[in-house]
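STRUCTURE:
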């Protein structure tokens, strides 16, 4: 069996979650494992999934409501032991300072640009997160 990586995708918008899935495809780069998605539309679902463990990267929508991805990122970085790397989706490039405040490892702007997104996600998957068989 080939190893896989689990990517948690948080957004209250199903279209945004779909953009992430489509931009990633089965795997974001040839040298990283295939990706399985765990979609979450609420903060409670994100926290429950992280408590269960097994998440390699979190993709958080900074424009989600009522709990925006930047605030969620900061919260999980404070509360989750060995928090996985976070890729933040931002509405505007000018919000990059907020991504830094949230402690996200990476950020890209919405709408998702497939090549940029896949490259950024692949870099986070290469950064040493555990991959399960």
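SEQUENCE:
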């Amino acid at each position: 069996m080939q190893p896989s990586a689990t990517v948690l995708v948080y957004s209250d918008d199903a279209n945004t979650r779909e953009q992430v899935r489509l931009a990633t495809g089965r795997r974001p780069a040839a040298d990283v494992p295939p990706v399985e998605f765990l979609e979450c539309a609420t903060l409670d679902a994100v926290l429950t999934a992280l408590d269960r463990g097994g998440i390699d990267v979190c993709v958080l929508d900074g424009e989600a409501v009522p709990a925006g991805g930047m605030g969620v990122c900061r919260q999980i970085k404070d509360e989750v032991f060995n928090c996985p790397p976070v890729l933040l989706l931002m509405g505007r490039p000018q919000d990059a300072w907020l991504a830094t405040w949230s402690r996200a490892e990476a950020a890209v702007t919405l709408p998702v640009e497939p090549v940029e997104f896949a490259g950024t996600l692949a870099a986070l998957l290469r950064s040493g997160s555990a991959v399960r068989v």
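REMARK: Confidence is low (pLDDT under 50) at residues 129-133.
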